[in-house]
Amino acid sequence: MAVLGATAPAALARTEAPLTTPPGPFADVARSLVTIDAPLPSGAPAHPAACDQLRYERFRRAGGPTDPQQADAIFVAMPGILGGAGSMRMNALGVVQQAAERGRSVEVWALDRRSNCLEDRFGLDAALAAKDPALALDYYFGRKEVAGRRFGGFLKNGQVAVAKSFDLRQTVEDYRAVIVEGVPDPDVRARKVFCGGHSLGGSITGQLMAWDFDGDPATTDDAGYKLCRASVALDSAVTADPSGLGETPLQSEAAAAAGATTYDTVTAFVDRSLRVLDVGVIGPETIGTLLGVGVVAQLRPDEDTADLVARIPTRGAAEQGLRLFHSRTLADTIAPVATLRRQHLTGEALLGAFLDDDTQPLGFIRTSVGVYANGPVGRKTISQDGPLVFPTSTSALYRWANFDDPLPAFPKPNGGVYSTPQSEVTDIQDLARVLGDGPLEFAEEYFPTRLVTDINFSQAGTRAGDLRRVQYLGGPAARPRLTVLAEDGVTDGTPPPLRGADVALTVPGYDHLDVVTASPKQNDGQPEKVAKAVVDFMLGLAGSESTATAADRSGAASDATVARRIAALQREG
After folding, report:
1. Entry pTM
2. Residue 71 in contact with residue 65, Cβ under 8 Å?
3. In this structure, are residues 502 and 43 in contact, taking their beta carbons and an 8 Å threshold?
4. CA-CA distance, 77 to 59, in Å (whole number)?
5. Could you tell me the domains of the chain?
6. Residues near 362 by beta carbon (within 8 Å), at least 6 away in sequence
7. pLDDT < 70 regions, the chain
8. Which burial class, exposed, middle or buried, applies to 302 when counting CB atoms under 10 A from its CB (0-12, 13-18, 19+)?
């Protein structure tokens, strides 16, 4: 891709197609799918044509300016690990709507990383069109032909050689290409573009803002942080140097030197044998199951789903995921018959069993959507952090009390109850729609392992190969940062040090996914808090002075770090 220079790349072919705005209080929001032709570099392994495109969902004010450069502000949002553009949909709708209610026109661009080009949505779309969730399960797991088409199977690592091309360099170049194509005027970018994302998306944004796009450390017009007026981190942090090693010369140089050999060894293994994340219960088949459960919850919210669960294979990753996510004890995970296959749950209760914070053992895929109803519960002991709720009956039909319904008061072992109006923030039908609906998916079925490998090495100080482009460690701090943390999220709850116009807050009752899925109206009657924080931050800064003040910058240490990097490259050159 010709996007490395300090000047804008040649115009890229672009199409934009209107999409239906999801239901909810979003009358002022228009939604569309933007597709940009951007071929992978020559020499990339064989790949579908869709991998030569960049895609994002654009949310803007209905009746507002069609040219994004005329908007008041633009939030370019990168999803988290295993996340697609669909995961940002509820937050995007809320941001645009809340700004419109203030008389302002802002946009959100929910990005889809290239790896999503490997997915097959045909079965999900067929099920939604026919209003029959069985079609999706039969297509993906039953080897049945649906509407004249048969699923080719979930891809294995040996079939996705192209995934090694979706590394950090390609990802930040794609990020920049979308920004520059949509907002070609650098002065407008410096005033109106807000870069950021959820979870891993915050880390990717930190790398973007530290990146040297023309490969010449002596120039700074192309520095990544100059693409952004400010940054937004949702249960994440926008930083390129979380350890602080880059600010200590001897440690920084030692980390760079020690990491190079290890980096080459690890990336060679990843590129050869672990191109996409497919380890045990975390992989394409399990993620595909979750998306199918979203469709089930939409189409059969109040009906028994035992016949649909029976369509999930009793062997393979989907079964392993079903057992891990829905077992009361460790022994249940190896029982002859999975517990879920002996129980009766409505579609909504099935989705809650997979993703609610009172049922899901893995913290990074939890939401606060309510709790079981209409049956007895016990305590699940398989969890990262304490006992959870588990349905114990094999005869009752379990229903789901939504986040804003009257909530059964199931007691916790140490006092209190599992679910209260203050601790529940996401509507289960909103969650079902973002999981199942397209055109861009909620989850990233084929997550490129090389991307997270590069980020981990870069953040540890390694400067080998393309990671030499990470030159401006002070870049993220050179612009104001909004950091929104979930009270029950995956961080330690400590925001980065505040400087100048930085803002940090923690939202009570939220889990990790809630920061991008929460309902537009909360149980306290107030607008959704994360979207409000993003709108407040953007409107407070957009259009103001674009040059960072001394208080915004990370100090002389960062300038010294850049100077050392330049000197080192000159010596090696």
Report:
1. 0.91
2. yes
3. no
4. 11
5. 24-113+166-266+449-572 (3.40.50.1820), 284-436 (no CATH)
6. 325, 384
7. 1-11, 243-258, 544-573
8. exposed
